Amino acid sequence: MSGGIQDVRAEDITALSTQSGVRIKTAVGRGAYVKDIFVRRMTLKTMKYAFWMTGSYGSHPDTGYDPKALPEIKGISYKDIVAENVTYSARLEGIENDPFTGICISNVNISLTQKPKELQWNCTDIQGVSSKVTPQPCAALLEKSIECPFPEDRLPIEDVKLQTCSATS
């Protein structure tokens, strides 16, 4: 089993000439979780995918892994994102019989390359909602008049004070 990731907050990000703006990857046999991920205010330029989530990322590195260990992917929130020169808006692929749930995408405007792919939102085994997203997302991201959440409380790490050290010989 792999470790879990939760309560991640990312904001005010610019990404240029990358494969994807946001990527979450896991696979059957990894177990654990990725949950409560919050991303806002991103500017993305020149990339293949604005959003990429996959539940079939490569083979497991441990030959003795448990093939029944399914990861839990839930509570993923993206909002206030502008992307330019994108080939695919999103590739969102959960795991059969173990869908990624609680995906929320709001206030997103994706401008496409001059030669975009015909299918802009490739979604399988996911569940979520969307609001004010262009191009129009897949049917698995139900259109609702919502704004995706982003917690406003402070995390303990935000209060860490770095101290300067010096050494003399």
TrEMBL record:
Entry keywords, A to Z: Cell wall, Glycosidase, Hydrolase, Secreted
Highest taxon of source: Eukaryota
One annotated GO biological process: carbohydrate metabolic process
Localisation per UniProt entry: Secreted, Cell wall
InterPro entries cross-referenced by the UniProt entry: GH28_Enzymes (IPR051801), Glyco_hydro_28 (IPR000743), Pectin_lyas_fold (IPR012334), Pectin_lyase_fold/virulence (IPR011050)
Any matching Pfam family: Glyco_hydro_28
Assigned protein family: Belongs to the glycosyl hydrolase 28 family.
Record protein name field: Polygalacturonase
